Structures are given as C-alpha cells and as structure tokens.
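User: For a reading group we're discussing how well predicted structures match intuition. Take HMA domain-containing protein. Before you show the prediction, I'll give you the sequence so everyone sees exactly what went in.
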Amino acid sequence: MKALLLMMMLVPSMMFATEQTFTTKVSGNCGSCKKRITKAAEAVDGVSNFAWDKKTKVATVTYDDAKTSPDAVKKAIAAAGHDVENVKATNEAYDKLPDCCQYRDGETTH
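Assistant: Thanks. Here is the predicted 3D structure of HMA domain-containing protein, as structure tokens, for the group to look at:
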C-alpha cells in the first residue's frame, strides 16, 4: 500500500519534469578554465548540455528541472573556483586555481 501511494505521488511530478535552459556570467580566462567550468557543471545530475564562451564569459546550461536547479549548477561552478552571477567562489577555491586562471586581477595570458 505504501509503495502504491509513493508511486501515485511520484508519477505526477515526473510527468511535469521538463528541460529548461538558462544563461549566466561565469568568470574565467582560458581553455583550462573552460575545461574546469564545464566539468563542474556537467557533474551536476540533471545537466544535459553546457557551453561557456570564453570571450563573452556567458554560460548556457540546459538541465532537467526535476533533478537540479540553476542555483545548484552555479554553486558547483563556484566550488571549482569560478565566480558565477550571484555566487562568488570562496577565496580558498579561487586560490587553488593555477595562476593563469586567476581572473580577479584581470585577464592573464598563457
């Protein structure tokens, strides 16, 4: 009986799960940043597509809203050391970035 009740509660929520897309600014400098940012975002369960443009600093994220949220994706990227719109990376996470990826003092070159 409990299993039936649980199924009745879960099925409607699964029926309304949809893919959503959002864009956000993500700070970074180079190809290494892009790899790190992409890896962090794609590690979030529910993210189905991710792209970050190094020049514009804009990330486009497609995700399943039944599994994750924009805030969860932003927090994952920030945990990897990259500031995201409304979510700043901790100094500890930022300080772990290679020198060429430390963007807070301006863009660096390789």
